[in-house]
Every structure is written in structure tokens, then in C-alpha cells.
């Protein structure tokens, strides 16, 4: 459970009551949760997903890829291969799910 708020006294009261009714541990300040890293500074709290993206690139074998404006060959003629191998359905679904999750936290890539 992540507890957050602006009033320290209320957070302390909530934690005290939760700890008395449930078996819980205080793990300190949030650093990493659901693929999101949390950094604190004097300017505020910042979240980013560098580790999540790097793990995703490593899983797909694209860790050394170079960014391009159009990630495919321009004017490429697509054709159907009649004797081609089928892709791994579960791996594809897992990758699409991770990309959808990433697009929820990065609106700048949601359209792409």
C-alpha cells in the first residue's frame, strides 16, 4: 500500500491505525513501484521509467537499436509469405501489454 499526502500528522495517524489492524511493514520512501521509479528533490517528486524501458528493450533484443523518425523502410512493398513461421503469440501479447502500459504513463508516445 502506498500512502501519500500533504499532512504528516494524518499520514502518521493512518499508518498507526493500519499497522494496528493489519500486518504491515513501513518500507520507507517509495523508490520503485510497478515499473515506475520515483525521485525526490527540492524541486519536487519526479517519476520516470528508464529501468522499465531498458528491461523491455533487453527482452526484445533491441537494447542497441538507434532511434529513427520512421521505424521502417520507406516505400517498402509488403507481401505475404505463404510458408513463413508463426510468431510466438504469448510473447507478442506480453510485449503489446507492456507497450500499452508504457503509453499510459508517457502520453508523448501514446499516438505512435
Describe this structure in words.
By secondary structure, the protein is α+β, with helices and mostly antiparallel strands. It folds into two domains: 1-29, no CATH class; 31-67 and 78-112, no CATH class. It is 41% helix and 12% strand. The chain contains four helices and three strands; from the N terminus they run αβββααα. It is elongated.
Unreliable runs: none
Q: How many helical stretches?
A: 4
Number of strands: 3
**Per DSSP, what share of the residues sits in E-state strands of 2 or more residues?**
5-15%
What is the end-to-end distance?
Answer: 33 Å
What is the total domain count? Answer: 2
Helices and strands, in order, run as: HEEEHHH
User: What's the story with the biggest beta sheet?
Assistant: 3 strands, antiparallel
Q: What structural class do you assign from the helix and strand content?
A: alpha+beta
Layout of secondary structure:
Blueprint: H1 8-21, E1 32-33, E2 36-41, E3 44-48, H2 50-60, H3 89-105, H4 107-110
Antiparallel strand pairs: 1-2, 2-3
Comma- or semicolon-separated keywords:
alpha+beta, 2 domains, three-stranded antiparallel beta sheet, elongated, 112 residues
Amino acid at each position: 500500500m502506498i500512502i501519500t499526502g500533504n499532512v504528516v500528522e494524518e499520514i502518521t495517524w493512518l499508518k498507526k491505525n493500519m499497522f494496528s489492524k493489519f500486518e504491515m511493514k513501513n518500507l520507507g520512501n517509495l523508490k520503485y513501484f510497478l515499473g515506475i521509479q520515483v525521485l525526490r528533490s527540492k524541486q519536487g517528486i519526479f517519476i520516470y521509467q528508464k529501468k522499465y524501458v531498458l528491461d523491455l528493450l533487453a527482452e526484445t533484443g533491441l537494447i542497441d537499436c538507434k532511434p529513427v523518425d520512421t521505424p521502417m523502410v520507406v516505400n517498402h512493398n509488403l507481401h505475404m509469405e505463404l510458408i513463413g513461421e508463426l510468431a510466438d503469440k504469448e510473447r507478442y501479447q506480453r510485449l503489446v501489454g507492456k507497450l500499452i502500459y508504457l503509453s499510459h504513463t508517457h502520453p508523448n508516445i501514446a499516438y505512435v
